[in-house]
Protein 1
Amino acid sequence: MLWQQLANGIAIGSVYALISLGLTMVYGILRILHVAHAGIYALGAYVGLFSFRLIGNFWLSLIVGMAGAAIAGYFVERLLYTPLLHLPRIAPLIVSIGLFTALEEAFRIVAGPHTLAYNARVGLGDLSIGSFHLTETQILILLVTLAILIFLWAFLTKTRTGLAMRACAQDPETTSSFGVNVSAIIAVNFLIGSAMAGAAGVLIGVYDNQVWPTMGSIPAYKALAIVVLGGLGNIPGTVLASIVVGLAETFFIGVLAIPFPRDAVAFVAMILVLMFKPYGLLGKA
Amino acid sequence: MPLLGITALSKEFGGLRALDRVSFTAEEGEILGIIGPNGAGKTTLFNLISGIYPPSGGEIIFQGKSILRLKPYQISHLGIGRTFQIVRPFQNLDVETNVLVAYGHRFYPSLWKSTGPFRQPGNLREVQTLIERTGLRSYAKHLAKNLPLGFKKRLEIARALALQPHLLLLDEPSAGLRFEESAQLMELIRQVCDQGIGVLLIEHNMHVVMDLCKRIVVLDHGSKIAEGSPEEIRSNSLVIQAYLGKEA
Amino acid sequence: MISGYLVTILITIVIYAMLAHSLNIITGHAGQISLGHAAFFGIGAYTSAMLYTEAGFPFWTSVPLAAVVAGIVGALLGVPCLRVRDDFLAITTMGINFVVEAIFLYIPFFGGAMGIGGINLPKWFGREMTKPEYFFLILVVFVFFLLLDRQLGRSWIGLAWASIREDEQAAGAMGVDVVRFKVLAFILGSAIAGLAGGFYAHFLTFIMPQNFGFGQSIVILSMVVFGGIGTRWGPIAGAIILGVLPEISRPIMEYRTLIYGVLLLGMMRFQPGGLLGPESILSKTFQRTIYRLVSPE
Ligand SMILES: Nc1ncnc2c1ncn2[C@@H]1O[C@H](COP(=O)(O)OP(=O)(O)OP(=O)(O)O)[C@@H](O)[C@H]1O
Ligand SMILES: [Mg+2]
């Protein structure tokens, strides 16, 4: 029972991590609260779903969904965010909210208001040990998240581009004075972050077996809470906060059966933590 | 009783000792020079005196009272005005309004007085006097963001003077200015000090410091390494080392 | 006489204008980003609804009390908001909105998803007010707030807010008690939003948690930003335009959210000061016209 809840919580937390990581990376480098990131997440799910219908192979559709999300993220950065960086912080935030609402409506108009099924066969099979049970999609989520996290870690610590990206997040001016092309680094940042969101969209689409226009609404704000909880721009903090929120939700609702809305848990946690640590769990001033 | 007494003042930023048990005093009507290589802790010293950060240790006595636990606005009400190394005027307000913000320090503590209009002839007259004294008259209605750097620096001084300070903290007022501009600014500082206001002056330009200050405190790596008259400082081997060591 | 439909729209617009105006105090004047303004709107609406239906208070006391309660909650929530800055503040206020909505939705005391019904228009002269009368009542109250806003803009309070908006740390060094003036902005903004909530509850006659969700906060913020954040007339212009637009044509109603989104996006991208902002095309044209009229040369 306990192990089961733990596994469920970690699976949910993993998806949160995939969404929130892109958000925290964008924040780290541009200091923008990228609300529309969840629109990219839903876009990834739609692109994945439609390509799955065309190709019929889940793994390929996952890749296509990630690519679609990455390209969309790139354009958002080039056309909307970068031109606004000189304005007060509220300007890009509002653009992001506007873009997100527009995206959700666009999904509804293009793909219809109904939920669409995404019943892809992944080919992994369920796992049962005694009363402990992991569904195929849970295993899928855990595996894909793990793979992406390892890739991200290797990228950030082992490659020159990754190092430059971390340096940029610390101090863009100094970094550019070392001859690093900051603009390219920002683009790479958006490509990777958005691809992760796209992956999360596809995974949730398969996990819930549905894709719908406003599927990004709750993740949009929950991911922001998680990112703040972890300390805006802090990558390990974000992973930690994602898992904490995933577990907290599962335990509150599943074990303690408290009649509290699942989606407000993240916010309550965030407000409580901010009272004591105004810069989040692992954040610094 | 000195105007300002600093004892064993320290500040750590996560393991880095930006200021290490620094002690000195400053008197009314005196320009005390604070010099030291980059990163010596000069700005940090100002941030501690003006209450922006709490110190890690030590004591700050102003006019006989500890100001250690006071908030920045309370410290400014006691009569400590400051400027910022990287200028920070209120960019989208005009010069006059910038100065008015500081002039309002006498109204803010009372909610009732705060509801009164600020553009009253009496207030404006005093503010205009300050604007004139700092040579900003022709810019009075300009937005701060449109001023040249030299005038932004003057504006910061005008704003600090509007607090009717007993002590003025000036962080590199002449940095980035042309020679004549800098000379005019120094003249202004001398006038301020002639009125009995104490001035702490952080300055990189040695000629300026040696010319203006009778006493100089030298910081290096957070510690005070010397204190004395310009002649003493010039011939102090520790100071020479601190500056040369940096270049070598 | 004014038709019933028109009056309904007019009342809605004044309530939105009041909300946009109150958010403008917090975000425009004092420079504190708030993404959760609908929470205070909701607190006001629920306070006055509960007082009216459960405790039997008349409209004339339940609505002012709504403002008081919203103001107090605004002060209490303003305190945690003071510990955080900029982006942390934006997300904290958003979180507060979600939590407040969840409380209305999940605590049976507040009527849950069904909301609260049976709230009526106020009585005067021994009869119920007509809708046009109600419209004039809230219009008068709103005009009072506009005059108050003008007074505040000229006062030391307004000046202190401007300095905080520009540079909080420098403001502190220049003698401004930043905490006090921020809390003042939160109290005032929240109280006016609470009052608007009271008016809204008595006009709609029943309220539901969904009326006060994050989406509503975004609508209010859109109006402020669209019209010109920090200006006196901008938020009102925003409330009128964005409030009327969906009513005048069905296709606009249909794609209202999309249009809101695109408007916001386009506005910020190309005219970040808003419609009536100091550097907007409209303001510049206006100034130029005035200039030409005044000096014909
Ligand atoms: N808020 C802060 N957080 C962390 N470290 C800081 C902070 N402020 C200053 N420091 C560090 O403290 C040291 C002293 O900095 P400070 O700005 O006081 O030097 P300074 O003498 O004014 O130098 P300069 O001549 O370049 O202005 C530096 O190493 C700086 O990096
Ligand atoms: Mg310095």
Protein 2
Amino acid sequence: MAQIELSAIRKSFDGTDVLKGIDFRIEDGEFISLVGPSGCGKSTLLRVIAGLEPQNSGEVRIDGRPVDGIRPSARNLAMVFQSYALYPHLNTFDNIAVPLRMRRLSAIERLPLLGAVLPGRRAKERHIRNDVEAIAEQLDIAPLLRRKPGQLSGGQRQRVAVGRAMVREPRAFLFDEPLSNLDAKLRVHMRAELAELHRRLKATFVYVTHDQAEAMTMSSRIAVMMDGELIQAGTPAEIYNDPEDIRVAEFIGSPKINILPGRIRKDGGVDVLGTALKLSCRAAAGDCRVGVRPERIDLGAGPFSGTVVHLENLGAEAFVHLAIEGSGLRLIARLADVRHLPGMASSVTFGFAPDAVRIFDPAGKRIELKVEQPERVREPAHV
Amino acid sequence: MSNAHPIPFRAILRHVLLIAGAAIMLAPFIWMISTASKPQTEIFSSELHLIPHQFALAENLREAFAKANLLRFLLNGVIVTVSIFLLQVMVALPAAYALAKLRFLGRETMFALVLFGILIPPQATAVPVFLLLHKAGLLDSYAALVLPFTISVFGIFLMRQFFKTVPDDLVDAARMDGISEFGIVWRVMLPAAIPAVTAFGIFSVVAHWNDYFWPLIVLNSEHLRTPPLAVAHFRNNEAGTSYGPLMAAAMVIIAPLVIAFLFAQRRFIEGITLTGIK
Ligand SMILES: Nc1ncnc2c1ncn2[C@@H]1O[C@H](COP(=O)(O)OP(=O)(O)OP(=O)(O)O)[C@@H](O)[C@H]1O
Ligand SMILES: [Mg+2]
């Protein structure tokens, strides 16, 4: 069980900055997901925490103690790799036993032939066997202990890799996209298993993924990384509903959030597509970008209109792609009720509630909004 | 179905050429076996025949073993080639691991030097190495036969290329599990690289078992002779070369390689495909 603190972590490869000053604190027992587009430095950050990659500057502290310069194994963290990284020449049992043998047996006891005849070896091997078998039992891989990794399916390999991580009872688990090599169905299944494992072990999990469904469903907190910076961390709901940066808003959520060009007037009101919204803000007048999630777009009523250009009916829900009249803009609306789909090329009106709107300044930072209507109603009452 | 595939002219030509090539390659061996089976009188008779009229293989073998301590020479061959191979592996694997998986200043330069080293023929360095061994007082010993070959740049190159294909994650997983860097070489990389090590072993053993040049230079004592020198001994020492026993001895010394090849044929071919070297 561990708390991990990162302060001002910087890392560059051959002159290119990959991590640009990461400050972050992972609480004890948390399930934290690191998400972000490919190449944003997620794996690098995880490897810095693990000690596999030394940072150029900054400090990593585990349980308050700096671990810089401490070897990966001495940090007592376990890592599960995307490729599972099982030892191909060892069977499942030996794969899981490696960390225990490395820790519990002396160098002489590990020697191939001589080691086996040393007096203490027998008892230690028996303990190791018990521990490995207990883990195998928990992970449902007991029948596979004699097989080599080459004879296992992807899901089974995944489990063996998790077993190898669990067996040493590490202070924290680091996962680097552990499910990305599995097919969609197995992925959903393993997702539930990992979440269950986290609840059972109550250990700190740091989980790298670029699959937002994994991040949203499993984690207690999500940290979104972009271009080597950590731009927002929060619960899945916070990240989804209150993105502080337009890149977070666009990265989380599928289909993507709709972004429309808007304008902040001198009086603080907000116009979008030439229509005033019932909102105000304190920001300076100028251009802004207005984001509305597809499920918050109400079709059939509202000040805007568009033409249906594409329909995606998924059975339980449908996505309607609209081309907004008078501009080249497209947006996507989610329809929960697939029985009343608009026809292709038909014209529909749409709108959205003021509290569905998130606006961002040209640099992409979130602008705080005041929803006007309730204020006006309330104002006279106070006076 | 009636008209069978016409056998294309090119295919016939190809096979004729291959058979001719094989015949040329095999001729000396067939001649060796033939001569080893003939009594002295038939060897020197003017008529040309492969199958001896009178089989004398047993007598020739007996004479070969009587005249020279062939078993001792074979043992020397085993000691020298096995020592060379083991030492080469002990040097090449850690070096190849460092060149393939560790990041340090000057790594590319080092690797360039290794490549450069492959280009230098052993004969070019023979004289300096000979002088070095002389100064160290090691001439005419097993050490003189083994030490100059312990660092095989070809081995380092071959293993480095193979280690490049081992995923980095595997190395990192080993580090997380607490295996030291040397431990990674022997416990993770070596088992993963068995095909490459086998291929290298075949090249190394064949080259040093058959090496005539170097043992000839550094050896004086008869009891240290390696198999190729032993054969030469038949030619030089006797008043008039006795070809029958000589060919029988030659048969004996190539036998271990032939037998090993038959056992490891698959591996041998794998190894050649692996290295892309003929
Ligand atoms: N060993 C290395 N040498 C040079 N550059 C590297 C090295 N490792 C990573 N990089 C670079 O650092 C950047 C971040 O890589 P990283 O692997 O952390 O990305 P990621 O967020 O994990 O991406 P993905 O989702 O594709 O796994 C990339 O541009 C990558 O090219
Ligand atoms: Mg990655």
Protein 3
Amino acid sequence: MRKVIMGNHALSYGAMLSRVQVIAAYPITPQTQVVELLSEMCADKVLDAQFIKVESEHSAMAACLGASLAGARTFTATSAQGLALMHELLHWASGGRLPVVLGNINRAMAPGWSIWSDQNDSLSQRDTGWVQFYCGSNQEVLDSVIQAFKVAEKLHIPAMIILDAFSLSHTYEVVEVPEQEKVDEYLPPFQPKFRLTPDDPHAFGGLTSPDHYLELRYKLQKDMEKAPALIEETGQEFQELFGRKLGLVDPYQCDDAEIILVTSGTAGYTACVAVDHFRQQGLKVGNLRIRTFRPFPFEIVRDILSQAKKVAVVDRNISYGHHGIFYQEIKSALYGHSPVPVFGYITGLGGRDITLDTFRQIIEETQKNDAPSERISWIGVKK
Amino acid sequence: MKADKEIKKKRMRLSLPPEEYMHSGHLACQGCGATLAMRYALKALGPRTALSIPACCWSVIDGPFPYSSLSIPIFHCAFETAAVSAAGLKAGLEMVGDKETTVVAWAGDGGTFDIGIQALSGVAERNDNIIYVCYDNEAYMNTGIQRSSATPYGAWTTTTPVKHYKNRPKKDIDAIMAAHRIPYLATANISYPEDLYRKVRKAKDIKGTRFIHIYTPCPTGWKTRPEDTIKLGKLAVQTCIFPLYEVEDGSTWKINIKPRDKKPVKDYLRLQGRFRHLNEEAISFIQEEVDKKWARLLKYEEVSPL
Ligand SMILES: Cc1ncc(C[n+]2csc(CCOP(=O)(O)OP(=O)(O)O)c2C)c(N)n1
Ligand code: SF4
Ligand SMILES: [Mg+2]
């Protein structure tokens, strides 16, 4: 069924179609509609789930962990300050191997208070052991929730669906809402390898000596390393059933491109418009939208980018004292594999629009220089 | 023959079920009250029970991975999340078809009075269907005896050295919980196992948030002799320092033990190294405060239901 829905509701529909069993969430702008719709669905019994109306995001994640350990499919959604408040428990989720799925609306961190988009909230959680999908459209948001459960539950690793504040969360787009039976076919009920039950009592997460801890983390990483292939495979399966592709990355006009832009989120689609624009002017530009940030899709990123003459990474985030975070990651992926120069740009923090003109400046600067400078290239800063 | 008969006649009737769900091999210190609390509580809760245990002595006492000294499942959760982890666990178990298991949050005083109070308040306000047990050893013992808001007035801890001993009263967590109007609240004490057992049994059959606050001496943190643990528990009740009572629906107070001759707090304090520095003046201040609190409790009972 086709519906015109906002990105936030795409998350809710994704959760509903995934037949989540326990939801615990706390409101924060710009996430509120996700949980409003889900609580309605629970109240109307459209969705057979328990909704725990907690007093904080911290408790939201704690409740999710308990529910997931019991073997229930579990969902939550948050943004910025809420995600930061969950931080300790994000580690608990991955360390406990609990496949919770979380929708995060990218919102800039305070102070000053901002409700507008940037990626510092989710990227600050880079090392917590969660799979991270950055979405570019409402359709992708809905589809990603379903795929995320499939991947997360198979690997026993939690997953985050990430979308831009307002330019997706509150923007209405046409979305194909798949049929429940087809989703059921794609996503069977959660069958955890281990779960907490008095029928087979175990202690989960207790004191772990140096004799064991390293091995547990090794196993987490080993399973994380299985994720890229699994994401491709489940994305393929998704395409066969629903006709839409869900890959690690989304390349656009990269094959013969001399400059490849690297983008994520909604900027990834604006970049495609920019690519068309430059191509009309005879410039061979391409765009690589990174959909999966964790695990980092090294292989495919290398394959695509090493064909270009220059790479321009666009970051709507910053690691203070270093550089843009995607920029660091792309450089580390190419290190020792390709000599292609990588230029890094920071723009759009706190919801400043990333427009065609932003990309024009980025392309011009990338063309102008032979090699990237040590200094950060800021786009659109008022000086 | 005769002797046999004699033995039979004299054989003690067990006042608690013989089943054990806590076993040897745990890591507690000698004379640890927290272990007795668990052992008795589990006798009342039975095998279809699941625990959430946050950071506290009990997260160590149970034993290191892959061992456990309990024969019921445990979710080791983050320090400040005992209550809501239990609520999530309960919801999850129900959604996978297990409506029967009793889910119990088992936390120390730090995890209850201090860092966990927000999540606990949330659970209690929603009346989530769990039992919350706070075993109270009146300080952060796991991290080496630092003060908590459950540490009583006058006590030494490593963060309240004798020159600056704790000069604020113990937080009245029971009044706070009663103010949430939860269906059941009880104080209990490891030196009164039958009373403790009865209260946990009673809690088990009630729906909603149930709160049980258990007094558990800690020889290591209180600088007491392990063999005095039971004696201290008795004295805590006989001096009215830790009265035993129940509150239903936040409105009906019932005191379980009213000592006929209240013992002076001095008898209790002098057994403990953590109070050794107190002079007469400080001790009489503590006596006055205990008397006031006891009088208030009697009033509550008198005028209830409120
Ligand atoms: C967020 C967080 N802060 C601090 C700690 C360190 N910590 C672990 S146990 C503990 C004290 C526990 O005290 P209490 O709840 O009274 O239990 P007890 O150890 O006395 O049994 C502290 C401070 C932690 N684990 N997590
Ligand atoms: S420090 Fe105290 S509470 Fe902790 S195990 Fe030892 S005696 Fe028990
Ligand atoms: Mg304590």
Protein 4
Amino acid sequence: MRQALEGSQAIAQAVSRCRPEVVAAYPITPQTHIVENISKLVADGVLDTELVSVESEFSAASVILGAAAAGARAYTASSSQGILLMAEVLFNISGLRIPVVMTCANRAVSAPLSIWNDHADSMAVRDCGWIQLHCLDNQEAVDSTVQAFKIAQDTELPVMVCMDGFVLTHTLEVVDMPEQDLIDRFLPPFKFQRALDPKRPITQGALVSPDFFGEIRHSHHAAMQKSAAVIESVDADWAALTGRRCGGLLTVEGPADAETGVLALGSMCGTLLEAMETLPMDRPVKLIKLRCFRPFPEAALREATAGLRDLIVLDRAVTPGLGGTVGTEVKGTLYGTDPGPRIHTYAVGLGGRDIPLDILPDLVATLDKPVAPFGVFDADLEKLAPEDR
Amino acid sequence: MTDTSNATRLAELRLKHGRPPASPAEPSAPPRDKDLRKSQPRFRGLEAGHRACQGCGEALATRLVMESAGPDVMIANATGCLEVFTTPWPESAWRVPWIHSLFENAAAVAAGMESAMKAKGHRTKVLAFGGDGGTYDIGFQSLSGMLERYHNVLYVCYDNEAYMNTGIQRSSSTPHAASTTTSPSGKARMGKRHLKKDLLSIIAAHHIPYAASASVAYPTDIRRKVRHAMETEGPTFIVIHSPCPLGWGHDGSVTIEVARKAVQCGLFPLVELERGEVCNVMPIRQPQPVSEYLKLQSRFRHLFNDKDPRALEERQHLQALADHNITLFNLRGDQADPMDTAGMDTVRRGGPVH
Ligand SMILES: Cc1ncc(C[n+]2csc(CCOP(=O)(O)OP(=O)(O)O)c2C)c(N)n1
Ligand code: SF4
């Protein structure tokens, strides 16, 4: 049913319809409305789940770890400092190959303190071994949330669904909320082969010597790579059922013969798409919308960038001393492709700075000049003391 | 009138936290065969052949806990010696479902497991195990949260009074004046400067249904306390004094004697609490001087240097702490009692007292 819902409210309803058996979460802006809405659904008797109001994000992640290990469908949500506090558990969850789902309402990481959106939190845990999906709008966030439970179950890997804090979580949009029976058809009850069970005792989380560690890491990496096919097929199944796609691993929008590409993730893509449609452009531009950041879709990226002369990669976070994470990874992926595009890497929209439509023509205008080093594109260096520029 | 209604309200509150009655799962009996050891009626949740040091108090305590807890359990184990010596992949000494996640989250992982059991209507009891580091220090927050939220979890702390797994570093449970690798004794210092944290009092402040201290020197007492905790609905906590021959500096053959002396001198009182109130203690038949306990262990060796005036002073401090416990918990028995430190000494007597 089409409804006007705040992003967080929509996520809470979607989670609720996925019938989680255990939900554990700790409040942090801008994730709070998700937990509050879930709590209300529980209080109103709409959602029958064990809601564990933990004393920290560390425990939130630990509780869902334990719950899923014991065979229950489990969910949490967090942001920023909360994601970083969870970091140790996030690595642990994926290393134990425990299928859980988390919403990351993306927010900048302190210091300086900021409650507003960027991707520093999810980028900081890019190596934690979770599948990481990014959403363009609230419809995609809802659909990706439902898909995430299916992907987690099918791959026995944890899934993080990233949605931009405030930009999506606090925005009222019309979304088509999938009905309960539709979700029930799509998402079977939770089953976990390795669940702890006294009838079939197993040991999880043993100490692994150098004789086996490399092999186990290899198999984790291989499982992540294999999950790419599952992510695509789950999206296709969802499309067959609802007529809506979230964009598999990545999608390309715009004129096929464009020689200029812009790659971005999350709600930035919405802004860029609108700019492409509404602003006059010197030259045709196509958008590469990266939905799946982990596993990193290398083959799809090579295909999507074939024939490009210039590729602009936009990050919403900075790896100080290097540049942008996505930009660096795109460069690595396209290294050796001949003829590869010239790659321009920038960060934009940090700490909640608005990304205006005309950022696109501004970016395209730089292409006439030699490739500039990485920089924060929308930073006004005049605001800094000369020695800090 | 007020009293009755208050009691009723409290009883309601406790019931609210409990689970709906369900038929208890049939615990599968361990298979019997001709091997005498294997045909013991006890449940061997922790198998022999693990890699603990000889005379490890923690290994012994865990075996006793598992025997009493039985097969219908699942365990969340914090990082530490117990986790390391029982699960060198691809081997495992556990015959029950067991998971190790991290150092500081055993209580939270157990809370999640228990929530899953609740959601599924299963009665399997969830246990959480941690060393003193994982309990008194780094895992304390998640422990407090688990107790406050009233999860039906038995948390057992194997207290060997230091971080043994990483090589004998001090914890907040290390006794005053004990020498560890991060509180060594030397010209300027007499071992650990601070006192052992009174964890049980903090646990008591959570007003959980049952909490107790126990010692590997008293296996019958451990079994009784574990069984009581297993039968109790809601969060329960047991801390078991578990000497570590490596870290305390004593021979592996005297683990029980060391543990016994700690109880008999009053430094490690054995008490039980219900809803935060002391409801039972193990009386000490004849309190031993603290130095009888200290002198068995090289971690206190610097307290027996006759040329150092600080040595006697620190021994007196430790004696004062033991005396304080004896007074606080009223541990001095007036007469021989089958339930006192001598009567309950089933290790020395070779069997339980009836
Ligand atoms: C976050 C974190 N910090 C430090 C460690 C290193 N570490 C592993 S076990 C341990 C000490 C364990 O001590 P305790 O809980 O007393 O158990 P014991 O080994 O004495 O049985 C430490 C410090 C860790 N695993 N995780
Ligand atoms: S170091 Fe101590 S606690 Fe660890 S296994 Fe050896 S005796 Fe047991």
